[in-house]
Amino acid sequence: MSISLLIQYFIKGGWIMWPILATSLTAFSVIIERIIWWKTEKGKRDDERLIKVYAAMEKGDLKVASGLARTSQDPILRVIWHGLNHYHSSLEGALQVAAAIELKRAGRFLVVMDTIVTLAPLLGLIGTVTGLMRSFFSLGSAEISAEALTGGIAEALIATACGLSIAVVCLIALNVCSAAVAEFQFELQNACTNTEVLLKTAKSQAESTPTATVIEHETNLAATA
After folding, report:
1. pTM, two decimal places
2. Residue numbers of the domain that contains 189
3. What's residue 214's pLDDT?
4. 216 and 222 in contact (C-beta within 8 Å)?
5. How many CB atoms lie within 10 A of CB 99?
6. Residue 102's closest CA among 198, 188, 207, 193?
7. Which helix (H) or strand (E) covers residue 49, if one does?
């Protein structure tokens, strides 16, 4: 389809095509931004370093774990580092705050896409109504023009088609982004839970080790006596 033909369709669609055009440009910009953002974030993932951080926490070496997580661009590791940085004050609260920040970044513009999914068909419906009104007004005039009659019908159909097309594309993008956010939320929750469990395990082992050493020492003294 040539550009000149698109321009003709746009003109025939009536004044409502301008709001529909603004809506389509907004939807296109948001979708492109989200595609770039998710692709960039996936490139930052560092599963190998994440395993090393888990191993360091399991050993109770929080300094090494914090150092590995601090220099990473992985959002999962950023959340873990935030928790480790506030380990002695409130680990769970720090993890929740950091995870909420990352989820907010991941869910950016979802409200905009949801609004466009609803708004675009309504704009098309307005174009349908105005186009049909134009056709009926031409029927009531003294001189009935076939061009005026078909022009109103064309306006109605073009506006409806454009509004529905924008809504369909934006709905697909919204569902894809929502699924990606849900998966990302699961990964964050899994990382937070692993961090809490590993740190509690390391702390329990650190507390039980001195006791076990004392008991072993006393046993050896008794055997010697």
Report:
1. 0.81
2. 3-224
3. 41
4. no
5. 24
6. 188
7. helix 47-58
